[in-house]
Design goal:
By secondary structure, this protein is α+β, with helices and mostly antiparallel strands. It is built from eleven helices and ten strands.
């Protein structure tokens, strides 16, 4: 959107270039001449005055009218080892040069900043593209180097933390589910809710033109917890319905299994609908909010709002169907086929 580069040149300076050979002829050292320049032009603190609790330095230098013109600086006098005074132009050259208006350093080296305001693309993508363009078109002199800092640096640190936080969260969810069900199959079944819930989240993020950021990943982590909770409740009720049918001796065919799964899923329609409605209703005001912090809150809420829609479809339709196929495959040997049912009094058997 815009670029602002700090000026590394444009400042005007007056430099005293000491002629060492000439200084040696007059018996002067570089320190002697530098001390005269410091005292006459820059000013040198020679003492400190104390007034109560306040302290003020006493600075000695030429009067302003004797140093505000470069031609006047040529008349600065230097005392030689013999006690005679000579103009400073006898031992030094006065030159006008340009340089940095402000000298900044970081890590012990000089630094100049270029501020870039990005819009229309996420920061990570922009930096990667800019790096390739700079490497192709900019040849840095020896001793110079480029470093991408600012928000991009913070984003890299956050990404490094998320690489640990996201897998750690999934591991914790997996362990909690295993402690609850004590069966790997049911744990994997519940964990299937996570990718299905992310489908709706990514669709809404794409519709709102939100780029992936730390705030979005925070919302995704929250969505993982809610979608897993809905999956746990659905699987628990499906297991309860299946167990009830088994105790009643009504689980003898695929039709009975389908009826058991249907009975267990129907019991969770209203609770899941109420849960999803409450979450979406609570987050919609954030999506319509404006002002300070609204941009961050919207990106946290957007994955949960979009994920709730796909989680609802998963919890009410997809998850019971997967449970039906899984249990049907596990109980296929216990089902009685109509072709194997024999009339009363018949001694024949079919295999």
């Amino acid at each position: 959107r815009n670029v602002y580069a700090e000026r590394v040149v444009g400042g005007f300076f007056i430099d005293f270039e000491i002629d060492r050979d000439q200084a040696a002829r007059y018996g002067l050292s570089v320190d002697d001449i530098s001390a005269v320049i410091e005292t006459a032009v820059g000013g040198k603190n020679v003492a400190m005055t104390v007034e109560g609790r306040e302290r003020f330095p006493i600075n000695v230098r030429y009067a302003r009218e004797l140093r505000d013109d470069p031609r006047m600086l040529e008349r600065v006098l230097v005392t030689t080892s013999k006690g005679t005074q000579i103009p400073i132009t006898q031992v030094a050259k006065i030159k006008r040069t340009t340089g940095a208006p402000v000298i900044k350093s970081e890590g012990g080296v000089l630094v100049g900043y270029v501020y870039v305001d990005v819009s229309g693309v996420d920061l990570g993508t922009y930096v990667e593209q800019a790096k390739s363009v700079v490497e192709e078109n900019v040849e840095l002199p020896p001793g110079y180097f480029l470093e991408w800092s600012g928000q991009y640096e913070y984003m890299q640190r956050a990404a490094a933390r998320l690489k640990v936080a996201v897998p750690f969260t999934l591991v914790i969810v997996f362990l909690l589910l295993y402690f609850n069900f004590q069966k790997i199959g049911e744990v994997i079944l519940v964990m299937l809710t996570i990718p299905f819930s992310l489908v709706g989240a990514m669709w809404l993020l794409a519709a709102l033109d939100y780029d992936l950021s730390v705030a979005v990943w925070v919302g995704v982590i929250a969505l993982v917890g809610v979608s897993t909770e809905i999956g746990v409740i659905m699987v628990m009720y499906l297991n309860q319905s299946l167990t009830r049918f088994q105790k009643e001796g009504r689980l003898n065919s695929w039709a009975d299994l389908l009826e058991a799964v249907h009975a267990g899923a129907v019991q969770r329609v209203r609770p899941i609908a109420m849960t999803v409605t409450a979450i979406i209703a609570g987050l919609l005001p954030i999506m319509w909010s404006h002002g300070s912090g609204a941009d961050v809150m919207k990106r946290i809420a957007a994955p949960m709002v979009g994920g709730m829609f796909s989680t609802t479809i998963l919890g009410l339709v997809v998850l019971p169907m997967i449970f039906l196929i899984w249990k049907g495959w596990a109980l296929r040997k216990d089902f009685r086929s109509p072709e194997t049912t024999q009339p009363e009094g018949s001694s024949d058997s079919l295999e």
